[in-house]
Amino acid sequence: MREFDRQDLTARWRHLAGLIGVAALAATAACTEAGGGSDDATDAAADGETVDAAGLLEMANENVRLSKELDAAEDRVIAACLEEQGFDVHDQRELGQHEPYELSSLVDYYPTQEFLPEASIAADWGFGWWANTEEMFESDETQDYYEAAFPDPFADEPVFDNSAFESLPDDERRAWSVAYQGEEATAALEGTGEPSGDGGSSEDGSLEFGDGDMPGDPKPGGCLLEMIEALYGEPKQVELDFDGGYLVWRWRPEQPEVDYEAMEAEYANRMAGEHGVFLDCIAEAGYAGWEFNDTGRLVMADYAAMLYTGAPFDEGLPPGEEAVADTHPAAPDLPADVPADFDGKRAYEVEMAVAFAYCGDETGYRETATSTYDTVVAEQYAAIEVDTYAWQEEIREYTVKAQELIAG
Predict the structure, then answer these.
(1) 207: buried, middle or exposed (CB in 10 Å: 19+, 13-18, 0-12)?
(2) Which parts of the sequence are annotated with region: Disordered (predicted)?
């Protein structure tokens, strides 16, 4: 049985509750930042053009293959640098993991996943809310649920043998890390050292590597920096819009990115006329009062929290960040006769999930939502198709350049 740690379980719970981003796997494989938009895709759909979803999926998988090939070439340049310094055993977590994975869909996560489990999952596990309770959080049953409801897309990836490196003494492994990425980056990973230069510790104890008050990653050093400068020139700092801003170092050309806000808005717009039949069905089953939000989802987290804790879900805020007004429709009140004991609450959750799953299937809502989201996502990828093929050519050219460096 695959083990899940608490951080992994929490992330998956928030995924289930709709509190983290969508389509993560497709985003990782096919895009990171820059480029793209919804206008071209929407116009194409309006003109009756057919979007080649299979071809777009192949484009996304080609992105993965090209990225992995360049990873391997970069790592051979780095390994040669390290071996010139006498480091013959390498950390396989940093060098050596180059097997491409295969995407089976452009979509990894559907908006309905938060409130519309498959019928078999609903009957056995409900919505999975119980798995995040103190009673069940670390139980074997919770692990079984996550394996059944959220199969690991990377389960078939090869396992890399890192035993040679891990058997080295601590000082030798640290020396390798410093030679690989520099003292600053090594100290940051250890979480104990102060970075060199103007950086320092922030008020919350985290290390700051930016030029000013904004936190960020340390600049790459060692053989990693030598490889970057030989292939790409000087690395550049890029600000991410994350918790008030965060600086990261980039050197490769950025993959074009689909416009996720436009994608979500277009999906919600196309589904607006489809919600009523589903809401009527669940109301008839005894679950009235639900409303879809402006992204075409039912926000379940508050209802789940009220069921098991008696209070709405409180995600908390990062230090210094002000709360943003919640514009989502409020979750319905719990029924007056909801059970007070854990087993009774879980039974209520399962009954509710079974009803939601039945209504999704019986009304055709699940099928419509799935096909609509598939179409919208494909249209968004079509909008960045030209830019993506141009990016692929850049990556091929850098791979050739890296191979020339390796050949000397």
Answers:
(1) buried
(2) 186-219
